[in-house]
Amino acid sequence: MAEQKEEIITQKAVIIKSTQLLILKRSQTEKAFAGLWDFAGGKAEIGENDEQSLIREVKEETALDIKPKEILGTYFGELNKKSVKFIIFMAEVIAGEVRINFEHDDYKWADVDEIKKLPAMSYMADFLADFKINN
User: Fold this and answer.
1) How large is the average pLDDT for residues 46-52?
2) Domains and CATH numbers, the chain
3) Maximum CA pair distance of the chain?
4) Distance between CA atoms of 130 and 19, rounded to whole angstroms?
5) Which DSSP symbol is given to 66?
6) Rounded distance between C-alpha atoms, residue 59 and residue 30, angstroms
7) 3-state secondary structure of 118
8) CA–CA distance, 7 with 40 (Å, rounded to integer)
9) Which H/E stretch holds residue 82?
10) Residue 111, CA atoms < 13 Å, CB-side half-sphere
């Protein structure tokens, strides 16, 4: 019988300003994916649904209040022999200015072509390959 991998589910927010997306650089001290660029978001806590988790995580990481919109896609990766499922939401900022927390060393608003050139989370290349901003 094949061993089943534990699955980690994480929600990520695509936040757009004009033609640029908000990305965060994970702190060099983080245990997972240190130094890589990523969208804001994270794992749900007990009792949270995907939208509640996303709202809380984005607030913790960026100080922004958001409203999750539609799911843009689901992507998969691996961390410490565990499967990671990334659920990508379009999200609208409803209040706040970006202030990153200790989990990140930097943030930037970047266009898709710029993000593709950065050391980023592996799922982002797949996501950005077909992503178009609808203005």
Assistant:
1) 93
2) 7-129 (3.90.79.10)
3) 51
4) 15
5) E
6) 19
7) coil
8) 20
9) strand 82-95
10) 3
